[in-house]
Amino acid sequence: MSLLRILSLIVLPLSIFAEKANVLIITIDDLKPTLACYGDKYAVSPNIDSLADNGTLFRSNYCQQAVCAPSRISMFTGLRPDTTGILDLHTHMRDINPNILTMPQYFKENGYLSIGYGKLMHGAKNDDKELSWSELGDDLPYNKNHPKPVLDKFQNPKAHQVFKKLNKTQKRLKTSLLQKEMKNKGAYLVSEAYDLPDDAYRDGAVAKAGIQRLNELAETKEKFFMVLGFNKPHLPFNAPKKYWDMYDPNKLPLAEHQKQDQQRPKYAYHSFGELAAYKDYQIGKAVDEKRQRHLIHAYYACVSYVDAQVGRVMDELKRLNLDKNTIVVLWGDHGWHLGDHGLWCKHSNFEQATRAPLIISAPNQKKGQVSQSPTEFIDIFPSLCKLTGLEIPEQLEGEDLSPILEDPKAKVKDYSISQYLRWANHGYTMRSGKYRLTLWMPKNYYGFMKFDENDIVEVELYDYQKDPNETTNFANNPEYAEVLRKLKKQFASYFASQYDAEKERTMPQLIKKNSRKKY
Fold it and tell me: Which is an annotated GO molecular function term of this record (predicted)?
């Protein structure tokens, strides 16, 4: 056998192949696994499906908290919300952790151009522009034949009329003033379906900006760490008409289980105030079937719209021959309720809010792999370090996923942890195998504190093999006593691993002092 043949049979670690690889992270707001590659038989998502066909799809992936800022800050720092102190939409990351290290910052410090477009680090003041980014694309290349969307969202005529009326002085308007007037005039709509080009809306412009910069980088050969932050399918559900036309709303199924009951604590639910911000919806008021169908149709249309933008970027990456040396990560920052449990939006510890897509495609990796291993978004930072040959910062709380890229049957952890702080209680939820255990603790409890089982306020236990729609809380079922005992023990082990006396002494005061939301 020739030496060349022998060498061709040697399997090298992925980090060797990708040591000088570029990184492209595709961030998609509010994207649950409504994708064909995740088994959704209604979704039209050929481009994300293609990415999965060329990489590894993580089927059992979960966010740290089902709301934008905490989830994004956790992903970008590799730290859990209890460590970052970001538990709401308004607190600034560096107010609590001034020396926190972000992923774009770390890659920038290691010789990469860190470049960002679109919605990025919600939870960091000005997207942490000074420390984290070499370039931050604030001026997006919208379609020149159409007006820029109002608030980067709306193209309806009423919205433009309100904007023109309030903007006579051409000074920058306060967002709150513009929103208020749009609501008064019936222009703050939950969806739009105009026959417009993709780049008349923000996500099309984000894709265009990314493509333009990729062309420049192909010429200069500079190493890059690029993040493209797409907004859809976040509310409002605005997408060009052609994506709405891909679906028949009458064929899209309504959620099977829409009941809220007393098996669960009342704070397991919420009143979907995010949806109620839009015309014709009210806080906590049940959504009738007609509007349910409209919202579900709108969500799917937005998924297909953002899928098309992913396709444009990936096609250009390939055309420029950058795909051979670029690691691509696609993630949705959390899931979304589409009527299940009588809920809409995110903001819960249920499966539909916490489970979200994660796909990684690295040069020379095996294609079309599917992993069942529990994974979390805090795993992305250490994984990209490993894949690019960078040292993994010791403070990171996630796991390196590269063993799974080499063998999809590999397992890097036994469970995933999410959390949600609501009213007077702090809920921690563990997805372990076919079970989910949710422990509701007092509001002043954080995961870095000493755990005492006597402090548990409420318990939820779900068995997805028997009950995939979470219709029954098995916590008080005697048949599940041993399962509950084992999962509580597993949870206690997790809390023990997180305990930090210094954090327990200082962090609660920092969170309370800097939080811009009063719980």
Answer: iduronate-2-sulfatase activity
Euclidean distance between the first and final Cα of the chain, in Å?
A: 70
313 near 210, Cβ under 8 Å? yes
CATH assignment at residue 456:
3.30.1120.10
Inter-axis angle of helices 380-388 and 68-77, nearest 10: 30
Q: Which of 92, 122, 234, 337 is catalytic?
A: 122
Q: Which of 350, 371, 406 is the last residue of a domain?
A: 406
pLDDT tens sequence across 409-467: 999 999 999 999 987 899 999 999 999 999 999 989 999 999 999 999 999 999 999 99
503 assigned to some structural domain: yes
Tokens representing 483 are: 């399962």
* 435 and 302 assigned to the same domain: no
Residue of 68, 302, 345, 385 with catalytic role: 68
Closest CA to 268 of 432, 67, 473: 473
Q: What is the pLDDT of residue 414?
A: 97
Structure tokens at 98: 């001034």
Query: Are the CB atoms for 196 and 155 separated by under 8 Å?
Result: yes
> Pairing mode, if any, of strands 56-58 and 358-361?
antiparallel
Range of the domain at 99: 22-141+199-270+287-406
Residue 146 catalytic?
A: no
Instruction: Judge whether 4 lies within some domain.
Output: no
Residues 376 and 299 in one domain: yes
DSSP 3-state of 338: strand
Q: Which residues contact 129 (CB under 8 A, 6 or more apart)?
A: 136
Per-residue confidence band for 19, with pLDDT thresholds at 50, 70 and 90: low
Q: How would you classify the pairing of strands 375-376 and 369-371?
A: unpaired
Known catalytic membership, residue 68: yes
pLDDT digits (tens, 9 = 90+) for 331-386: 999 999 999 999 999 999 999 999 999 999 999 899 999 999 999 999 999 999 99
| 475 and 383 co-located in one domain | no
Same domain, yes or no, for 361 and 246? yes
Nearest Cα residue to 94 out of 62, 132, 40: 132
The string of pLDDT tens digits covering residues 68-93 is: 999 999 999 999 999 999 999 889 99
**Domain end (from 406, 434, 463):** 406
| 223 in the same domain as 318 | yes
The answer to whether residue 39 is domain-embedded is yes
DSSP three-state, residue 419: strand
In a domain, 312, yes or no: yes
